[in-house]
Design a protein that fits this description.
about 200 residues, alpha/beta, five-stranded parallel β-sheet, two-stranded antiparallel sheet, disordered N terminus
Length: about 200
């Protein structure tokens, strides 16, 4: 069984992490990953979202952080979300529309955020930084678009050796699901994201 990953050769490493998801992956991601991530998403949104603010979700995937943030921020605020994968954005739009969440979706790279400096009160990236071709560039871009005194939040797994529960899950996935070599391990930083 395939989760919907395919290898690609990135022409511009600032635009791609080295793999993308095929057409089946966004639905699988929403169905299987969103429930596992729920407690992390809830904590991230609780720490960063406030009513009426401007909020950005970077590397949004199927948009479960953006949807939760839109609910927390309310109709007086503004939520934007972006991802490099257009198929993830199609799924994200559909999921948001199904619950009436107002989110402005963008296809863009974290290395080149399409926003002016100091645009957002909060900028977040839930489990995406480890996939950036250059995490330092992506985090600097996130900081650039965060207003002074705003909040920047990101979640990433600890290195695999420090994550026995998730490491065991990855072992199981690699044994029973057709993942290309190295794709699953990419979710874990080799020993730290930023040096």
């Amino acid at each position: 069984m395939s989760m919907g990953f395919e290898r690609v050769n990135a022409l511009d490493e600032a635009e791609s992490s080295g793999f993308q998801l095929d057409k089946a992956a966004p639905d699988n991601y929403e169905r299987y990953v969103a429930p596992v991530m729920h407690p992390f998403v809830a904590a991230l949104v609780a720490a960063t979202a406030a009513p009426s603010q401007r909020y950005l979700d970077v590397a949004c995937g199927t948009g479960f952080v953006a949807r939760a943030a839109a609910d927390a921020i309310g109709p007086e605020g503004y939520v934007a979300a972006l991802d490099v994968n257009p198929q993830m954005l199609v799924r994200a739009r559909a999921a948001a529309e199904s619950i009436g969440a107002r989110v402005d979706w963008h296809e863009a790279s974290a290395a080149k955020l399409p926003f002016s400096d100091a645009t957002f009160d909060a900028v977040v990236c839930q489990q995406g930084v480890q996939f950036f071709p250059d995490p330092v560039v992506g985090l600097a871009e996130m900081r650039r678009v965060t207003r002074p005194g705003g909040r920047l939040g990101a979640t990433v797994w600890a290195p695999r050796a420090s994550s026995p529960y998730f490491s065991a899950q990855l072992d199981m996935l690699e044994e029973y699901i057709d993942l290309p070599p190295g794709v699953g391990a990419q979710a874990f930083p080799p020993g730290g994201i930023v040096t």
